Amino acid sequence: MLSQSMRYLLPSLLIVVGFLTTGGCMTSPTNNQHLGYYYGSTSKPVTAAGFVDKPNAMVTVEALDWKSGRWVTLATCRASRSAYHWDGRDWYYWQAAPTRLTARMWNSYWGEAEARIRSVSNGTSLFTFDEWNWTPMSDIGDVAEGVNGQEVSIFGWQFEIDP
Fold first, then answer.
1. Which listed site, 27, 38, 61, 68, has its alpha carbon 20 to 30 Å from 90?
2. What is d(CA 111, CA 96) in angstroms, rounded to the nearest whole number?
3. Which residues lie below 8 Å from residue 162, measured CB to CB, with a gap of 6+?
4. pLDDT digits (tens), the chain, 163 positions
């Protein structure tokens, strides 16, 4: 039988195991991030970044095309060859070029719009975060508290409502 503390920690531990076995994460943008609280903020470029566990790994950033229901490539990039050592493992930073989303990537309602973004490396969607506020002093458990899933929703405001 699990102790009370283990029952409390088990969900975080399962998330951490999932995070470590996916081979990486997307640290930016974070889930529910707003590009701006003004009309036209959907035209701001989005920069995706994160870490993978393989040097020079290819990372593809994708956005959901709301009309077709398919994931569309926004950008591709390669991870660094220089490791960042954290929590007993080597991680390699990646950052895609800033990219503007097309109208098909925004789901509009009453001026506000939602876009869904994910990153993929080696055929696997990378983990995403609700909030990325760890420090070098954080441990993997601190990071697990902010794990969101494998895609994020970002928001902005448009000039007009799409039909």
1. 61
2. 28
3. 103, 106, 108
4. 433 433 343 344 334 444 454 588 888 887 877 787 666 778 889 999 988 999 999 999 999 999 999 999 999 999 999 998 877 788 899 999 999 998 899 888 777 888 999 999 998 888 887 765 555 555 555 555 555 567 777 777 765 444 4
Residue in this structure with the two tokens 């954080």, named with its chain if needed = 138
Retrieve residue 118's tokens.
């994910």
| Residue 64, burial from CB neighbour count under 10 angstroms (0-12, 13-18, 19+) | buried
Read off the tokens for 61: 């950033």
d(C-alpha 119, C-alpha 128), whole Å: 9
Q: Are 61 and 48 in contact (CB under 8 A)?
A: yes
The pTM of this model reads 0.74
The answer to whether 108 and 155 have CB atoms below 8 angstroms apart is no
